[in-house]
Design goal:
Number of domains: 1
Shape: rod-shaped
Structural class: mainly alpha
Largest sheet: none
Order of helices and strands: HHHHHH
Number of strands: 0
Length: 151
């Protein structure tokens, strides 16, 4: 065997090593992407759970009850309600996006969406949304408008 043959074998071995490395890296990248999506979804659920706990145990819950009962709000309560609905919309917009990229499964996405109409079916939201919707993506605005039309 001469040096040229040994060199050719070395080049082939190097090419095979590069291909194997690229395959390995693509698999790792795919797993990392999947892991990032799952983390984003879990974080969204944690944020929503925290918000629901606050509604049950804090002053904001009392404000939300006044909204549901269509009672007058103080200036402080209007501010609290605005932050609440901003938070509700941010969380739902985030989940809407995660679903659109395949990071949120349909079961969880639909679970959020079943609860959203009850959250926004009130006079406060009807007054608040037109002045605030520009903060959200057009896709999410259309999503909210379709929910409002159905309710």
């Amino acid at each position: 065997m001469n040096w040229e043959a040994i060199g050719a074998i070395g080049e082939i071995a190097g090419a095979v090593a590069v291909v194997v490395t690229l395959i390995y890296l693509s698999l790792q990248l795919r797993e990392n992407t999947k892991s990032s999506k799952v983390h984003s979804l879990n974080q969204t659920f944690s944020e929503r759970s925290e918000m629901m706990r606050e509604l049950q145990s804090h002053r904001i819950g009392k404000t939300y009850n006044k909204i549901i009962l269509d009672q007058d709000l103080t200036d402080d309560e209007v501010l609290e309600a605005s932050w609440l609905f901003t938070r509700v919309c941010i969380l739902n917009e985030k989940l809407h996006y995660l679903h659109s990229i395949g990071a949120a499964d349909s079961y969880n996405y639909e679970s959020f969406n079943r609860q959203l109409p009850d959250m926004i079916r009130n006079n406060f939201f009807e007054e608040w949304w037109p002045g605030t919707k520009s903060q959200f993506s057009e896709v999410f605005q259309i999503h909210i408008e379709s929910i409002r039309e159905d309710t």
